[in-house]
Fold this protein.
Amino acid sequence: MLIEIHKLKLNLGTHTVLRDVNLTLQKGQIYGLLGPNGAGKSTTISVVTGLRAPTAGSVRVLGLDPAADALQLHRRIGVLAEQAGFYDWMSAGDYLMWFARLYQKNLDKTEIASLLGRVGLDGQSPAPIETYSRGMRQRLGLARALINQPELLILDEPTNGLDPRGRREIHDVLLDLSANQGVGILLCTHLLDDVDRLCTRIGIIAEGRTLLEGSIADLLSTQRAAVRYRLRVEATETAQPLPADITLLTRAGDWWHVEIASAIEPASAWRKLLDTGLRIDEIHREGGGLEELYMAVTEAKEAA
């Protein structure tokens, strides 16, 4: 288990910020941490990374106590904060070479260029970071989080500022990390489309308390209904028939309307489609599914 949090409570002065947070993340999983603004998501991340010590409860990350073993933990994790700061006068390559030395890694220019290329940046560009757009900074922040080949990635709004194609490219990087390298990823985001495509497990928190946690398939099965999506798909000549639990309803050019069974996580469905030889450029939910579940849980909390 990469992260185990049970009954986490955190007081800041006289104010209780986290009341009862529970979270479990295994190797190779992508976990979506969801909740309204002010729910306690970023504060939970600060506890996971050892920046704040819990008032009560149990927190283990990679088998360590984050508050007591922060330095040892930081060598094994990668973090992309929502507001990622850089030395703007440096080029991306020089910045990553400098940052790598903090981990006692002497990466050469070829290795740095390869890492930047992986996240969609020009590894040879001498342009200073101050000229980068918000989306380019997000890409650079992800490259920085990967510099030490982490076992666990903690990402706060990683696709902010990216266009649909850029989001898909980052999604592909994260899916490769989880599926092929066994990296666990804790994803904090407001974009339910990102969660749909990437995550197999979620936790929904509000007012510092976990309202719901589990696999998306199990949670959606309680709705007992298939979920419909609109996809922009690039087909290839080698594309195979669709999996049995994915039904093509209509097709108009590149736009497909599909229905997936409630027993399968959306992220697993998209992986199955990719395995058939299709390329998915955009995903839009058309009713039911994760959004309906999220709204029902958080609205019930507000009513209570």
Notes: The longest helix spans residues 164-181.
